[in-house]
Amino acid sequence: MLNFDSNHTTIEGNLNQKKGKHSLKNMVVTGLLITNILTFSGCAKTVDCDIEGIHAHYYVNEEDLGRYIISEKSSVSGLDRLDNYVYIDQENVELLEFVNKNDLFRIEDNKEYISNITETQEDYKEYRYSYYYLIPIPVIHSTGKTTFTTYNYIPKAAHSWTSNPDKNNLTGEERICHYVYYGYKIIQKDGNYELEKSNPVDNLNELPEGYDYIKEKFYEVVDLNNKNEKLDYEDGPEEDKEIISEEEYNKSKSKTR
Amino acid sequence: MVTKLDGDFITINTKDGTKKTAELISKFKIPNLGEYVIYKIDKMFYGAKYNFNGEETLLDTNLTDIEKKALNEAFYQLGVK
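YS: structure for the whole thing
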């Protein structure tokens, strides 16, 4: 049972920038005209709807990223149906289906979702560091009747990047990680719709005219000095690597010489 | 690189001027009603309506029966223990 404590007056900061431990998948409250949410499309049910004429309901994900879809399913493409709807002209039906097929979202309709993400995205610095690990080399032994395998370990040095300026073994090299954004333009060619991706821009407001749509993930992290180098990946040693200290590495190197 | 957090902690200000650290369990919007938060302090769960006014997040615990019912339903659906 929940408590409602009237002594609690405010939360410090902007709660919208915080992340909860759990997210709500379903929310149905009897007697209220609210969203009927089913999370997985595999469980999607057809919702009763009295609206006549061609119309599209608004579908959203958990972060309120949404678009209009012509459907009465409770869930489509991982988005959940709201009761909000708009009437659609016959000539726009195909366009809306194209938008849905390509998983696009109108920038104009999703400004809050976009600003929630972009307002925290500032350039940050990363530092190159060295790490050391052992590569196991299998050696097969045979005694005539039986065979068995042992491993020789070869010490190796590798490099990666960290945002921790106090990490051990920094090499002194630095890079600025920078966010760039992409938009999409829908063009009509020979009676068909086609999608055109924009060049990367530093701010979605800088998109050229006509680039009115985004995908759910509409940004990349790049090296500020080389914007073609995408940095949006998990850096560092792989999990299965046997990491050793620099001291052990130097000791192993001297033994293997 | 981006680190995914299990959940954030928040600071609750109270009428008597004290501050309490709470675990943010969930926040969500109920269409046509507003935005709500569920948080945990010392093994007790609390619910409130919230509104960010540009500077701080105001809490409203003077909720209607419908809102309380909705929050309790949400709480049970979260399956929090």
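YS: worth flagging: Residues 9-78 of chain B form one domain.
IM: good catch. Also Chain B has one domain: 9-78.
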